[in-house]
Structure formats: structure tokens, C-alpha cells
Specification:
- With 779 residues, the chain is mainly β.
- The protein is built from 5 helices and 44 strands.
- β29 and β30 form a beta hairpin.
């Protein structure tokens, strides 16, 4: 650590400079609901001396030149709208700060103007969300310790959320990661992670969308509004930013994980069309020595892009896309004398891919209405083969081909009936296509593979919804709505009412309540699972209904000054119509990963999650921020045998504390140096007790399923920290970063194995210490 510290001191001292550097801030101001531009809005740089500001033109556009680089805060005011304050934005010498701002109209019952400041991170990007929501920024994914430029890992610092080390699968309030809804540009997409669904359904290694491509995005953890359907645990609402339409800008990153290159700018200077793309390639070769031996050779790459085409009188057309490929190979050791661990005689090949692309169009229909429409394609491709040595030859153990892709049409209509009533309605149709072929050896004595599914086809999923925001007074706001979902494969449907109410009963106090009925389609392969009965192949699960849940959430928030808040959220979730196996402990609520499944399921299972989330947060101000969260919860389920048990993900508690300090450096204070830390303490996932007598008798692991999830993994203490240094020069800027995830090298439990040679049961554990050093130059 001393060497790292001295190295950073050398970098800092070598970049002291006396020249004050500046950059441009520009963007567009529009109405939050109608999308109409707002001319005459006042934009001011806070704490500037002399005061620096401007006003938006007839198209709502504004421009501020020669703003000193570093942290800047801006405030926007205009008659009849809430004042917006965006604090501590990063302004670098190599990149213009282009921001599109949406303002919310605000009137009292007497139709007089009320001006109220709001922070960009305290509320969701979706103004029809009542509670359990958070806006996160690109800069936070780069700054927060433990984030590693991955939005999913960043979310683990929020109340009610936990992730693992190997996988970024998100457990929200005791729910399985598979219940999470992923959206890009407002359209539901497949799991957008590298190595998606390999260790955990709904999770992966890291999000394939680079932070370089992201705009401010939203994360919701319960009782979400009607526009979010096909979700039972939470929502990741990712937004892609638009490229600079006036100036070409580029960035190149090299790090221990690989390389990253991005570029943006106008297609033709002077025109308003723009491009933005980012490419990443990684081999993990530099950190291979500290990875588990069974990890093998790992490679991944991804490409993201967005092309934007404003057309006068016809709205804005955009084409966006995201693609990723992943490869992992572990070769078996041929000599049996080298077989020291179970994976030594296994040869595994994993080839995976993810893709999402779409054409979007948004047009303002009138001063009170707009329409956004998207045609999209997204999907995950998975090809896995596993073999092991048997009598001197590699014999197949399992084969998994799971290709699933969706064609989606999505349209959203927004209308403002009055300053106190805003309306939104949407419709989507998704053609879910699949090509699945899953086979596995059922026991070690067999020399053949049993086929679980061999199916190719498609099924339609339809969704429509309505929701509103109604301001009863300047203190009370209602968010009613209803969602409808229909699955054509088995003609199953769900009608889902939603309601939220927020009461600002004192200037710095608010009380909110939200209810929602939510449902989720299970992975398609479980509907298509094949079972042989009397030499007849059947699909016993083809008529499964959606898994469903009622969410009840109460929220109290108190603002302590301008930059600090306390939030308390007790919640209760009642889950029902959960697929279970009759007379068995099995429930889909506990599903982590199991491709080789063909049991008959019935929608007779239930579950219950209850708990309380506590948040104490100071937003970045004067170089200091911190976030402390405590989540206490209990997650239970009832399987097909009618017994109430812990769910797999019943950790009972999650405690997080993250903080950071930032200093200005250089004679003109153009540079920024920061140190950030995070400590996470959480209970372990639940485990099946080992049946030791049966294990020694059969010489392989046997579990006591009559006491399913009775045991638990050990609690974990995960320490992560990052050191960042941003250097601004006249024509370029650079960013040095060191991230250490799991610095204490806490072991992560992976299961039990039976060591036949030593005749003992052994734990499989790996520390998964993740160091990441990078250098980025922007020009």
C-alpha cells in the first residue's frame, strides 16, 4: 500500500499547474410530462463569483462558456415550475457537459406559483414513482467503492439490496435475482450481463452496458408504478445518453481488465445528428493468477452505440444497440495423479452472448402531449458443454443450448390534462422466440445423456397500462394506475392495480404509502420442460400461471439541511401463485440456477417478505459524502408440502457504510483526488443440511431436504475501496483509478464436495479478491 501511496503522490506533484482551465456547459430545458421546450428559464452556476448564468432560448436550449473545470452546481428556475438544483457535477477540460433537464410544473390550490428546490438524486427519474426508488449517475458508478463501473454492484450499497462476489445478481428484500426487470430506453430486455444466467438467473459477472454510455438511470425496489410490468422484486431502468452534437470527443482506457475506447460527436459539424459508441475488450490475463484455478481462461467484449437524428417537424429518431460475447474455457488435466480438486478432471466450455438493439421515435404532438415508440430486438445466447474423464476418455456430462430472443413493439403516450393532472398510457407486444436443447447425465454410472427439453418456437406476451400523477394540493400527490399482462402460450393473464400517495406534511418531512400487485413470467424453459410418462412425452408445466405478489410499503423521509436525509421504509410482501412441486420443499422462489429440471409444477406456493430499510445519507458537498444503510428482514415460503421455511435468500440483515472524500489539487485547483471506501456486512444465504450418514454411504454429497434451508452460510464482511485522480490539461484530461473489491479476501461459499481420497466432506470456498487498476485519457 505504501508503494501505491507514493506512486499517487508523484502523479499529483507532477501535475501541479497554474493555468485556470474552463469548459462549456450546455443543454436543453423542457417540460417533464409534455416534452415541450421551456424558453426563458434561468440557469445559474451556484457559488460563482461573479455570478455566471444565462437563459434558455425559444427552443429551450442554453449555453454557458468558460466555466472553470472541477465540481459545479447549477440551478434552474422559471415561472410556474419547481426550481431544480443539480449539485457537484463533474466538468472536465476535455469534455463538454451536455445535460437535458426536465422541469415539473407546480401550482397550489389557488393557482399560485410554488417554487421548491429538489435534488436530482433524492427522487426517481420517473416522477410517477412514489417511493423505494433511487436515481444513480454515471459518475457514481466510477466513484463509489465496490461499484467497479457496474450499476448492479453499485446498487448493492442501497437499502434492501445485496449482491455476491462472483455474481452481480441482485437480491432485493429477500427476492431471487430472477425477479428483476431490466429496461433500456424504456423497453424490457433480456439479462444484459456478461456471463448472464451462468451462476445465477438474473445475474452475471458485470453489466455489459459501459458507464460511458449511460445517462442518469433509475433503480426501484418495491411497489413500482403501473408502467413497470413483468417484475416481482425490482426494476433497473437504464438510460443511454445522446452523443455531443457539436464537438467530437474521444476517450481511451487501459486497465488490468483490458481496454475500452469510446467516441462521440456530430456526423456533420453544424448539423444536429450525432453518434456515440463504446467498445470494451477483456481477457483478464493480468489478474489470472489470483482467480480460482477452475475459472480457466476468461474473455469478454461488448459494443454499445446510439445514433441520434432530430428531424424538423417529425420528432427525433434514434438507433441504439448493445452487444456482448463471453467465452470461458477450463481444460481437464489428463493425468489422474493431478486430480486434486473435483474440477481437475472436468473440461468445460462456455460460449455466451447478449444483444439488444432498437429504433426509437419521439414526437411532440401538442403543447400537452407526446408519443414515444420503439421497435426492439434483444436476447441471450448460451452454449455450454461439460465433459469429464471416464476410463481415460472425455465423456459428455451435460449439453446446454439455450437461445432466447424477443421482438418488441413498445409505445408510450403522455398527456397533461392540467397543471395538477398528468396521464401516461402504454402498450407493448413481445414475440418471445426460443431454441432450447438441454441434456444431462442423470447419474455417474450412465454413459448417455437424458434430454430435458428440445423445443423451438415462440410465444406472445402483451402488456398495457395506465397511470397518472394527480396533485390534490401542494402537499399531497396521488399516483394511481393499473397494469394488464397476457401470455398467449397458455392464455394466462393478470390485472394489477397500483396506487401511491405522498404527503409533504412539513417543509422537511414527507410520508408516503404505495401498494402494487405485481407478477412475473418464469423462465420459458420451465414452461416447456418435457417429461416421459408411459412412453408419452408431455409438457406438465405448459399451463403455469404467473408468479404474483402484493407489495405494501410505507416511507418516512426527513431532510436534514440541504444535503442530508434520513429515510425509513417498512414493507410487507405477500407472494402467491408460486410454482412448487407437490409434496416437496421445492419452490420457484428459491431458484438460483437449475437448467436440468422437468418436475411437474403447480401454482400453489406462497411466500412472505417483511422488513425495514433505514437510510442515512449525505450527498456530495464540499468534497464529502457518505451513505449508511441498514436492512432487517425475514423471508419465508411455503412449498408443495405445506411447510413454512426460510427462503434461500433470507440473509436477515444487510448493513452498508460507504463514504468518500475529495480534494482539489494544483495551484489553480483544476484537478481532483479522491479516496472512497465501503464496508458491507450481511448474513449468509440459506443451505440444505448435509446428510452425513447417507453421504459417506453413497460416497457423494447427499442433503437432508426434509430440513431444506435450515442451515446458513457464514456472515460476510466485504471491504472495498477506490482511489481516483482526475487531471485536467488544456486539451485533454486523464483519470487514474484503483479499485479493490473484497480487500480482506473474504471467502465466498460455493458448496460442499465429498473428498473420496481423504474420506471427508469439504467446503468449496474462494476469496474472489478483485483488483482493478486503470488509466483513462479523454481528448
Amino acid at each position: 500500500m505504501k508503494k501505491i501511496f507514493y506512486f499517487l503522490l508523484i502523479i499529483i506533484s507532477a501535475n501541479i499547474q497554474s493555468q485556470e482551465l474552463s469548459q462549456t456547459i450546455r443543454g436543453k430545458i423542457s417540460d417533464k410530462y409534455s416534452g415541450m421546450p421551456l424558453p426563458g428559464a434561468n440557469i445559474v452556476i451556484l457559488n460563482s463569483d461573479p455570478i455566471k448564468g444565462t437563459t434558455s432560448d425559444m427552443d429551450g436550449k442554453f449555453r454557458l462558456d468558460k466555466v472553470p473545470v472541477g465540481r459545479v452546481s447549477i440551478q434552474i428556475t422559471t415561472l410556474g415550475y419547481k426550481t431544480i438544483t443539480f449539485g457537484d457535477l463533474i466538468l472536465s477540460s476535455a469534455k463538454e457537459l451536455v445535460i437535458d433537464l426536465e422541469m415539473e410544473e407546480k401550482y397550489t390550490e389557488l393557482n399560485t406559483v410554488v417554487v421548491k428546490a429538489q435534488k436530482d438524486k433524492r427522487e426517481s427519474i420517473n416522477k410517477m414513482t412514489t417511493l423505494s426508488a433511487r436515481t444513480f449517475t454515471v459518475e457514481e458508478t466510477q466513484r463509489f467503492a465496490g461499484g467497479g463501473d457496474d450499476p448492479a454492484r453499485l446498487a448493492s450499497g442501497y437499502a434492501g439490496v445485496a449482491t455476491g462476489l462472483q455474481s452481480n445478481g441482485i437480491v432485493i428484500r429477500g427476492n431471487a435475482p430472477k425477479g428483476l426487470l431490466w429496461l433500456i430506453e424504456g423497453v424490457e430486455i433480456s439479462n444484459p450481463n456478461h456471463f448472464a444466467n451462468l451462476a445465477t438467473l438474473g445475474g452475471g459477472g458485470m453489466t455489459a452496458l459501459s458507464a460511458q454510455m449511460m445517462s442518469n438511470s433509475g433503480f426501484l425496489t418495491g411497489a413500482f408504478p403501473a408502467e413497470y410490468g413483468n417484475a416481482i422484486s425490482g426494476v433497473f431502468d437504464l438510460k443511454m445518453r445522446t452523443g455531443n452534437d457539436e464537438k467530437r470527443e474521444h476517450a481511451f482506457l487501459i486497465g488490468s481488465n483490458g481496454i475500452d475506447f469510446s467516441s462521440e460527436g456530430p456526423f456533420i459539424k453544424g448539423k444536429k445528428s450525432s453518434y456515440l459508441f463504446n467498445y470494451r475488450y477483456s481477457t483478464l490475463a493480468l489478474i489470472q493468477p489470483i482467480l480460482p484455478e477452475e475459472a480457466g481462461i476468461i474473455k469478454y467484449q461488448d459494443l454499445s452505440l446510439k445514433l441520434n437524428f432530430p428531424v424538423k417537424g417529425a420528432g427525433v429518431f434514434s438507433f441504439w444497440g448493445l452487444g456482448a460475447t463471453d467465452n470461458q474455457i477450463h481444460k481437464a488435466k489428463e493425468d489422474s495423479l493431478d486430480w486434486l480438486i473435483p474440477s481437475d478432471n472436468n473440461e468445460n466450455k462456455y460460449n455466451l452472448g447478449f444483444g439488444a438493439s432498437g429504433v426509437s421515435h419521439k414526437i411532440i404532438l401538442s403543447k400537452n402531449s407526446n408519443l414515444a415508440t420503439t421497435l426492439a430486438l434483444s436476447g441471450n445466447l448460451m452454449n455450454v458443454t461439460e465433459k469429464e474423464y471416464d476410463n481415460g476418455k472425455l465423456a459428455p456430462v451435460q449439453k446446454l443450448l439455450n437461445n432466447a430472443w424477443n421482438y418488441t413493439f413498445n409505445s408510450v403516450f403522455n398527456h397533461r390534462f392540467s397543471p395538477t393532472h398528468n396521464f401516461r398510457a402504454g402498450f407493448s407486444a413481445t414475440d418471445m422466440c426460443y431454441d432450447i436443447d438441454i441434456s444431462s447425465r442423470q447419474n455417474p454410472e450412465e454413459d448417455f445423456l437424458t434430454n430435458y427439453i428440445s423445443e423451438e418456437g415462440s410465444a406472445m406476451l402483451y402488456r398495457t397500462y395506465y397511470q397518472s400523477t394527480v396533485n390534490i394540493s401542494d402537499k399531497i400527490c396521488l399516483n394511481p394506475g393499473v397494469s394488464f399482462m397476457y401470455f398467449a402460450l397458455n392464455e394466462n393473464y393478470s390485472v394489477e392495480p397500483r396506487l401511491g400517495i405522498k404527503w409533504n406534511f412539513l417543509p422537511s418531512h414527507s410520508l408516503s404509502f404505495a401498494y402494487g400487485k405485481h407478477s412475473r413470467l418464469e423462465p420459458i424453459n420451465y414452461y416447456l420442460a418435457e417429461k416421459a410418462e408411459a412412453e408419452i412425452i408431455t409438457k406438465p408445466n405448459i399451463n403455469l400461471e404467473f408468479s404474483k405478489a402484493h407489495h405494501f410499503v410505507l416511507s418516512y423521509e426527513k431532510q436534514i439541511g440541504e444535503f442530508t436525509r434520513i429515510m425509513v421504509e417498512p414493507y410487507f410482501q405477500l407472494l402467491f401463485d408460486i410454482p412448487v412441486v407437490e409434496n416437496s420443499w421445492f419452490s420457484m422462489l428459491n431458484l438460483e440456477i437449475d437448467w436440468y429440471f422437468n418436475e411437474s409444477l403447480v401454482n400453489e406456493g406462497t411466500g412472505r417478505n417483511m422488513g425495514i430499510d433505514l437510510t442515512y445519507e449525505r450527498f456530495l458537498q464540499k468534497g464529502l459524502y457518505y451513505l449508511a444503510t441498514i436492512s432487517l428482514f425475514d423471508s419465508r415460503y411455503k412449498g408443495g408440502d405445506g411447510i413454512v421455511r426460510n427462503t434461500r435468500f433470507n440473509k436477515n440483515y444487510v448493513v452498508n457504510f460507504l463514504a468518500g472524500k475529495e480534494w482539489k489539487t494544483g495551484k489553480s485547483e483544476n484537478n481532483l483526488f479522491s479516496i472512497n471506501g465501503k464496508i458491507s456486512i450481511y448474513g449468509g444465504d440459506r443451505l440444505h443440511p448435509v446428510d452425513e450418514e447417507a453421504t459417506f454411504l453413497s460416497q457423494e454429497m447427499v442433503y437432508d431436504y426434509s430440513r431444506a434451508f435450515k442451515d446458513s452460510e457464514e456472515s460476510a464482511q466485504i471491504l472495498s475501496f477506490s482511489i481516483n485522480y482526475r487531471i485536467n490539461k488544456k486539451k485533454h484530461s486523464s483519470f487514474w483509478s484503483i479499485h479493490l473489491i473484497n480487500a480482506l479476501q473474504e471467502n465466498e461459499f460455493e458448496g460442499y464436495t465429498f473428498n473420496k481420497e481423504k474420506q471427508r466432506i469439504e467446503k468449496n470456498e474462494d476469496p474472489f479478491f478483485i483488483p482493478y487498476l486503470s488509466y483513462k485519457i479523454m481528448f
